[in-house]
Amino acid sequence: MRFSKLTLRDLALDNKRVVLRLDLNVPIKDGKILNNTRLLGAVETIQYLLDKKCQIVILSHFDRVKSYDDITSGKKSLKLVADEFKKMFSNNKVVFVDDVHFAAVKKIIDNEKADIYVLENTRYYDVDHDSKEITKLESGKSPVLSQFYADLGDVFVNDAFGTSHRAHASNVGVAERLKDTAIGLLVEKELKALDYVSECKEGKKVMILGGSKASDKLKLIKEIINHVDALIIGGGMSYTFLKSQGKNIGLSLLEQDQISQCAEILNKYSDKIYLPVDHIVSDKFEDKPGRLVEDDVEDWGTGMALDIGPKTIQLFHRVLEDASIIIWNGPLGVFEMSNYSRGTFAILDKLVELTQNKNVYTLVGGGDSVSAVETRKVADKLSFVSTGGGATLTFLEKGNLPGIEVIRDKLS
Questions:
Q1: Where on this chain does (2R)-3-phosphoglycerate bind (predicted)?
Q2: Mean pLDDT, to the nearest integer, of 194-222?
Q3: What is the pLDDT of residues 218-227, one digit of tens each?
């Protein structure tokens, strides 16, 4: 393993107060948590700390906070998450700290004897509560806020892989100010999985990239293309690549300013890159049956591609068939619409088949890809499902993450 970061098991934690960074950014609708996968992912680390008689101070962001109204509305609060933790850890005292003023938070933690303290959304500190101005104390890694977090505990543990590509006060700033730091058990698993797919030289390695924007992934493509044997590109991002080849794409998603970069990549690596050859097209962005359009048909009319077609599915399946490692990030169509979900689920089903029958190592990362996995309920049939989207891509692109790099190394 390239990373030799201290883990929970390397520290003397008995009776310590631990500042624990988690990623509790769960989907909520109408006052209900729609998916608690991220909460369940935190249980192993929390229970380990409880078994060591630790007091746990939990930090997490929730959604984006862009104004004071986002705070006063209550819609960006972690209260529902804290309530869920109270149910999950019913044998322990869990306190939700809804105040964000430094002195008040410190007083509650010092005086209310609890096992777990869930602090309010860290991004609330990006807005000044008096002036209501944007201050970005959290996302700007404010030294004052970082020190405040550090003063809340003896040890810092980062178990929020999904936010480790960001250098914020609640992950990097606090870690810089505490002597004892470690990665959590979830982050350890993430790093081992990503290390494996990055470092393994045996067999054929294939990466599948989907999603909407090519611009989000061009840096990654340039970095990783020399480390994979094949790169499958689908989803909305593929149409900027197709346009760069002079293909007709109708009204499909296009990033005009990225065409030259896409053309450059295709010219250099045409033997490795596979693009859609047929498409399911609709004149409107709605969940109604579309029509099949071949790649070489000139007139798309007002159609936009919302999914890959059957020939593309066959092509992509052939590329995957003899792979040893497959990394997938991003859907291949608008899979949330049932009429345009076939491509994404056909690829997912193929990954499951190869994992189960051929012992292929399959790693899926990225919010929408993971949503597809959860919809199919096949997470346990894949090798590893990452909790990171941007973090996974950044790791594959750069080989490290700010929130991990700041953690102390094991002594060699």
A1: 38, 123, 166
A2: 92
A3: 999 999 999 9
Q: How many CA atoms lie within 13 A of 393 on its CB side?
A: 21
Do 142 and 71 lie in a common domain? yes
120 is in an annotated binding site: no
Answer yes or no: do 291 and 148 share one domain: no
Give the integer Cα–Cα distance in Å for 336 and 315: 23
β-partners of residue 28 are 33
Q: How far is CA 37 from the centre of its chain?
A: 12
The catalytic residues are: 38, 213, 367, 390
Question: Does residue 72 lie within any of the structural domains?
Answer: yes
Is 62 annotated among the ligand-binding residues? yes
Would you say 17 is a known binding-site residue?
Answer: no
Verify that 364 and 217 share a domain, yes or no. Answer: yes
- Say whether both 223 and 175 belong to one domain: no
> What are the structure tokens assigned to 181, written together?
């730091």
Q: How many domains is the chain built from?
A: 2
Nearest to 381 by CA among 359, 364, 361, 356: 356
Structural domain boundaries enclosing 12: 8-187
167 is a domain residue: yes
What pTM, to 2 d.p., does this model score? 0.90
Asked whether residue 394 falls in the same domain as residue 311, the answer is yes
367 — phi, psi (to 5°)? -50, -50
Residue 175 contacts residue 407 (beta carbons within 8 Å): yes
Please identify, among 187, 214, 238, the residue that sits at the C-terminal boundary of a domain: 187
38 among annotated binding-site residues: yes
Per-residue model confidence as pLDDT tens digits over 344-384: 999 999 999 999 999 999 999 876 888 899 999 999 999 99
